[in-house]
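INFO batch 0412 | record 1 of 1 | parsing
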Amino acid sequence: MRGSNKNFKRKITPDPKFNSLEIAKFTNYIMRGGKKTTARKVVYEAFDIVSEK
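INFO prediction complete | emitting tokens
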């Protein structure tokens, strides 16, 4: 019988533009179908709109 494999949590790398873990978690939450670059574009555009107001 094999030993049980332990589930390891993956470490989330910080966002490259803002260097923030919270934004990286937010982009992972927004991401659909593994499209991380598209999710980053959406998040960055949303932050640009918020910063203009």
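INFO post-check: Residues 21-52 form one domain.
INFO record closed
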